[in-house]
Amino acid sequence: MIISDITELKLLQQKLEHHAYYDELTQVFNRRAFFERCESDFARAKREALPLTTILFDIDNFKQVNDTYGHSVGDQVLAHVARIANSCLQEGMLFARYGGEEFVLALAGRSATDGKTFAEQLRRRIAAQPLTVGGKTISITSSFGVAETTGVVDESLQHLLHFSDKALYEAKRSGRNRVCVYGQSASGGA
Ligand code: GH3
Ligand code: MG
Ligand code: MG
Fold first, then answer.
1. Residue 15: is its pLDDT beyond 70?
2. For the segment 51-74, what is each residue's pLDDT rounded down to a tens digit?
């Protein structure tokens, strides 16, 4: 009796921990898990004077997907995009759902140039893998904002994410389905 109580308690504890760190819909890390892990990566990068690059990406015109196909299809699109990103991850990369239809990546030890290459690959894969639901094929594109640590002494992870967000905004502004790097003007395109 007691043993089974303990087993149940452990299972419950595991469930609670899973809930605390994983996004229920996409089953990738949630925002909280991202910050916990990334703060420590960020501190180490700073200590060892290594670069760290963050990438924010956001599904383009996602509201339209919900409006056209319904919220539950929208949910499937989110899970689909998360799966694609998950399958692209390389050693040392952290990936999480940042909120809504926005995701975040942290690349420890990688420069903005590496980040741009990776984001470009991911952008292409997402665009190349539409989701088919109930006989309908839904094309998906996404926009990316890349920023690398500057090495400034009092820079925080929040600053870095703010720069990624600015670059993401630039990617949206300049036409969507593209990657922008903070501090570099938007160029190229889809
Ligand atoms: P943009 O290209 O500028 O990013 O346009 P957008 O339509 O993607 O962006 P907007 O911010 O206007 O809309 C985002 C929508 O995402 C609104 C919100 O209802 C929806 N959304 C956020 N979280 C979820 C979710 O978990 N599931 C579903 N189905 N929709 C969600
Ligand atoms: Mg969007
Ligand atoms: Mg958004």
1. yes
2. 999 999 999 999 999 999 999 999
3-state secondary structure 81-93: HHHHHHHHCCCCE
Sign of CA dihedral 124, 128, 132, 136: positive
Report the separation in Å between the CA atom of 81 and the middle of ligand 1, taken as the mean of its atom positions: 13
CA of 152 to the centre of ligand 1 (A): 34
Residue 187 has pLDDT above 60, yes or no: no
Is 141 within a domain?
A: yes
Q: Is the pLDDT of residue 86 over 90?
A: yes
Model pTM?
0.94
Closest by CA to 23, choosing from 70, 83, 69, is 83
The answer to whether residue 186 sits within a structural domain is no
- Amino acid letter at 69? Y
Q: What is the CATH number of the domain that holds 17?
A: 3.30.70.270
Neighbour-count burial of 64, counting CB atoms closer than 10 A to its CB (0-12 exposed, 13-18 middle, 19+ buried): exposed
State which residues form the domain around 58. Answer: 2-181
Give me the pLDDT at residue 185, please: 72
Ligand 1 within 6 A of CB of 139: no
